[in-house]
Amino acid sequence: MPVDGAQLWTLNQRLLAVVMDACTEELTELGLETKEFFVLAEVEASPYPAEIATALLLPKASVTVYVRNLVTKGFIRREIDEADLRRHRLALTDEGKTARDRALAALAAEYDRRLARVSSQDRVELQRILAAMLDLPGIASSPS
What region holds the HTH marR-type domain (predicted)? Predict the structure, then answer.
């Protein structure tokens, strides 16, 4: 019986939502809303708001609001881009790095709690499958 891609996608979305819900209290204690956390976590990889919007599939106007909030909270700062003085790039503050790392630790702990329900062999297979779907051949083909 073929597996329906839409059903797999829905299960994946539900898992992510359950994990995020379980971490809401920790995010709130850190002073972060869920989408602010995603923006904060993306800043180092994508230091420009437009890049963040593209990476997270968010409207640019929404990213602008989240960036403004994160700047106000002291988690990120705007810096002049030395390569193009007309542009500002975003950088994490020490407080932002701490908040990001604590939030990621909470998410990892909750995800690990759920991963404990499956065998280590299934976890290796899940990593291989996800890496293959993301075209990450180094991870997809490497045995653990």
Answer: 5-135
Cβ–Cβ under 8 Å, residues 39 and 63: yes
Q: Quick one: fold of 5-141?
A: Arc Repressor Mutant, subunit A (1.10.10)
Say if CB 81 and CB 89 are below 8 A apart.
yes
Rg (CA), the chain: 18
Q: What is the pLDDT of residues 47-103, one digit of tens each?
A: 999 999 999 999 999 999 999 999 999 999 999 988 887 888 999 999 999 999 999
Instruction: Please state, in angstroms and rounded to a whole number, the distance separating the CA atoms of residues 71 and 93.
Output: 9
Q: 42, 55 in Cβ contact below 8 A?
A: yes
Contacts of 55 (CB under 8 A, 6+ apart): 42, 45, 46
